[in-house]
Design goal:
With 357 residues, the protein is mainly alpha-helical. The protein is 47% helix and 7% strand.
Length: 357
């Protein structure tokens, strides 16, 4: 009897411990993210689901957990959150934020949605902005140019991952590779280029923050890692191949070989269409073209917007002995090789498919 009583006491204590732990976790998720009272403009578009609102709030770092946010709404039978443009700070509790969203405000029906796809370059980004806002292509390019040095210096001060590497005079577009590709909502077509860039930079910080320690302890600077990530992003479409692609480039760097990347040659001559390059274009002497055997090391900077998988591939590449790779442009399959003979054989095999010089 005493034995069963003892077991009963243990079970009761375990249940009590679990209940108290869940209560503490629950209370923790209700508390503010921080004491920072800086207001953030957050747009909740019409017809956004509870899950979608949670994702917007977690992206803006004003709640601790988006899944808990959805669970909180279900537990409390809350289903009347309203679309609108809100001013929310990290110092607000979850209850305060939910009450604000329930109260609503005058919904801005001029809200616009813009998607920036991974792999596009700064010129293509400028076209997307021109097509969706009242900013022109040239205004975007000029705002993000080296001529706007005060703005660039302010970014170096505001973001830990933006360094003076972006001020290199050989770089075509200083913010190439630093703006995160995603879908964003803005107040209207009157949104400024500065506002757009801030949202994309803020999201890049959200993506990079978990890797900060790895980046700071890397043999490569953040600028070099984003450069590697952007080349891998453009070279292969399958994210699972990118860590191998980065390993190829690192192996070549370690052996003082040129990277030999076709897409850096394409970027270097500012060619955005998909036609095959000519021999003279492959040999164009510019700060990005790693097809030149005399061009050792990385290009002067990134060549496209990069998604998380490419960033992670550059920070944590596979360890291989590969020095070459080539893809079938029709099937998207990528082949890796340790020696030039096998690579050249595959290259000849794919020549009818891939074309080019």
């Amino acid at each position: 009897m005493a034995k069963y009583r003892k077991i009963g006491v243990i079970i009761t204590l375990i249940i009590l411990f679990l209940v108290v732990s869940l209560f503490l976790v629950y209370q923790s998720f209700l508390r503010p993210v921080s004491h920072d009272k800086t207001l953030k403009e957050i747009v909740i578009p019409a017809k956004t689901t509870s899950k979608g609102i949670g994702e917007i709030l977690i992206t803006n770092k004003v709640i601790k957990n988006d899944k808990f946010f959805v669970m909180y709404l279900k537990i409390n039978h809350i289903n009347d959150l309203k679309a609108g443009t809100y001013q929310i700070s990290e110092s607000m509790s979850l209850k305060e934020i939910v009450k604000l969203l329930q109260k609503g405000n005058s919904y801005n029906d001029q809200t616009i949605k813009i998607t920036f796809k991974e792999g596009i370059n700064f010129r293509e980004l400028a076209r997307v902005i021109e097509n969706n806002t009242n900013n022109t292509y040239d205004e975007v390019l000029n705002f993000g140019s080296l001529e706007n040095k005060d703005y660039l210096n302010s970014l170096i001060e505001d973001y830990w991952f933006v360094t003076d590497s972006i001020l290199n005079p050989d770089i075509y577009y200083p913010l190439e590779g630093y703006l995160y590709p995603d879908t964003y909502y803005f107040r209207s077509k009157e949104v400024t280029v500065a506002e757009i860039f801030k949202k994309l930079l803020d999201q890049m910080q959200v993506v990079l923050d978990p890797f900060k320690e790895n980046i700071l302890n890397s043999n490569y600077s953040i600028h070099e890692l984003l450069t590697l990530a952007s080349i891998a992003e453009k070279e292969v479409s399958n994210p699972t191949d990118r860590s191998k692609v980065v390993s190829v480039f690192i192996n070549r760097l370690n052996k003082n070989m040129s990277l030999g990347s076709d897409i850096t040659a394409r970027y270097g001559i500012k060619l955005d269409d998909t036609r095959a390059l000519t021999k003279s274009e492959y040999n164009d002497n510019n700060p990005y073209n790693t097809r030149l055997t005399t061009k050792l090391g990385l290009p002067v900077g990134p060549i496209s917007m990069v998604e998380k998988s490419s960033i992670e591939a550059s920070i944590k590449p596979e360890t291989t002995n590969y020095l070459y790779f080539i893809s079938n442009i029709q099937t998207k399959e990528t082949f890796f090789f340790e020696n030039s003979k096998d690579f050249e054989n595959k290259k000849n095999e794919l020549k009818k498919v891939n074309g080019g010089y």
